[in-house]
Amino acid sequence: MSIYIYSTLSADQLYALADGRNIKINGGANVADKRLVTPKGKVTRIQENDFELLQQNIIFQAHAKNGFVTADHGQSDPERFAEKNLEAADKGAQDTAATVQKRNPKAAAPKAE
Q1: Which end of the chain has fewer beta carbons closer than 10 Å to its terminal beta carbon, N or C?
Q2: Number of folded domains that form the chain
Q3: How far apart are CA 44 and CA 9, in angstroms?
Q4: How far apart, in whole angstroms, are the C-alpha atoms of residue 92 and residue 38?
């Protein structure tokens, strides 16, 4: 059976498993792609036995605890799933006008177009 790992991490993550293999969880959330599309979440399908090993990885545990990754048995739209169930972005996400304004309130507000 498959497990779907949903992520709002900005970069792909390669987690080391206890059996010596690595498993890649797709990142790229909140980062514009070559078509300038900026997805809010990404999904990776893995096997249930791999998920059992993945849960033992201390970095995966930290990412899950901090709300950047989670698992589900069902496949959903990753952006909608991320909006409802995960932290919005990690520190590697690209800046937006809102994040710049939040970080530096004295910065000039963006002009409405």
Answers
A1: C
A2: 1
A3: 12
A4: 13
Give the pLDDT confidence of 24-67 residue by residue, as tens digits: 999 999 888 888 888 889 999 999 999 999 999 999 999 999 99
pTM above 0.85, yes or no: no
Residues 42, 12: Cα–Cα separation, whole Å: 10
Helix extents (H) in the chain: 48-54, 58-65, 78-85, 97-103
Which residues form the domain of 15? 2-103
- The rounded mean pLDDT for the chain is 88
The identity of residue 18, as a single letter, is A
Q: What are phi and psi of 51, to 5 degrees?
A: -65, -40
For residue 78, being part of any structural domain is answered with yes
Q: Is residue 108 part of a domain?
A: no
Determine the 3-state secondary structure of 2 from DSSP.
strand
